[in-house]
Amino acid sequence: MSIVDRIKGKMTTAGRSYKSKYPGRVSSNHGGSMSGYKYIMFHHTASTSYSGAINHMCNPKSDVSAHFVIGKEGECTEIVPMTLQAWHAGKGEYKGVPANKGNAYCIGIEVVNLGDGKDKFTTAQLKKIDEVIKYIDSFVGEKLPIIDHKAYAGNRKVDMRANFPLDNYKKYRSYKAPSSSSSSKPSTSTSNTSSSSKYTLTRILKVGSTGVAVEKLQKAIGVSVDGKFGAKTEAKVKVFQKSKGLTADGIVGEDTAKALGWSFKKKSSSKFTLTRLLVVGSRGDDVKKLQKAVGTSADGIFGEATERAVKVFQRKHGLTADGKVGKDTAKALGWLYKG
Ligand SMILES: [Zn+2]
């Protein structure tokens, strides 16, 4: 009997709860827990029927499965939970994955398609794939590189064929480029060079600010350059803002930066600081934050599901998988730690 059971979207894996966004049939064709998460691997089913593909992958005799099956009308089922090894990779080898261990390290997506290089992938299907990739990203907690079966299995396999937008998925995690502007507009070399040399301001400048960015500002507005944003700089910024029809507040944010011909990209605001060790039983907003980061439901209570997700995260980052969130794990999460 399968150790996976699903009731109304809830799967129980080895007695632990796992809620899928794409509930439905569950396959018993799977191994134990994933050893880590290295790649998202695409396959085609070499068939045309979504239900047929699921039937096949849920048949214990077939010995094959995947984590996700995506149909031509945009249907999707997670037939093996991402916590467990699905049987899709087989023999092969790829950077960072030990030989023949693809199932232990790759999330498998089976896309319903004949795989003859002619059968078209539908827009509904491709859009669903985009959505599933986001779902995987949030579960894993990072954007795993995307490969196809052939990259791992070599000449043994043909999936994916060239009519699948694999390159776009690798680059953009989507079937299409994020903005059509660069590809559809004829590019002029001059505009390219000027945009690439554009200065990018990464913080707001105001009275009291110092540093290279302030020097750059002072040069731009014609104030003697000392790298210190004082009253003179402020006055000149106001003049500049007025001349551009902006609110003359003397603060250089996005609008003023743009008017200066700069880009503005604020660095992700101050890092979160964890102030205690989080373990099973911990409760609070920091637990919620942790749960969001590791992709479990954010109820603010550190239970078994959270512990499991933390261990997966720790393993993936080469940390001791003790399920406790202290200094090292906080660091790996991009947090500060002052416990
Ligand atoms: Zn395949």
Characterization of this structure:
The chain is α/β, with parallel strands linked by helices and 339 residues long. It contains 13 helices and 14 strands. The strands form five sheets. A five-stranded mixed beta sheet has the order 7-6-9-5-10, sandwiched between helices. Strands 1-2-3 form a three-stranded antiparallel beta sheet, with no helix packed on it. The protein has a two-stranded antiparallel ribbon with strand order 4-8. A hairpin with a 5-residue loop joins strand 6 and strand 7. The chain is globular, with a radius of gyration of 25 Å. The two termini are 45 Å apart. Residues 43, 149, 157, 159 line the site of zinc ion.
How would you concisely characterize the structure shown here?
With 339 residues, the chain is an alpha/beta fold. Helices cover 33% and strands 14% of the residues.
Short descriptors:
alpha/beta, three-stranded antiparallel beta sheet, single chain, about 15% strand, about 350 residues, binds zinc ion, 14 strands, globular, five-stranded mixed beta sheet
Structural class of the helix and strand makeup? alpha/beta
Distance between the termini: 45 Å
Q: Using only CA atoms, what is the Rg?
A: 25 Å
Strand ordering within the main sheet: 7-6-9-5-10
Quantity of strands, as a count? 14
**Low-confidence runs of at least 5 consecutive residues:** 181-196
Figure out the total of helices: 13
Bound molecules: zinc ion
Name the shape in a single word. globular
Name the beta content range.
5-15%
Secondary-structure element string: EEEEEHEEEHEHEHHHHEHHHEEHHHE
Output mean pLDDT: 88
Main sheet characteristics: 5 strands, mixed
Q: What is the percent of helical residues?
A: 25-40%
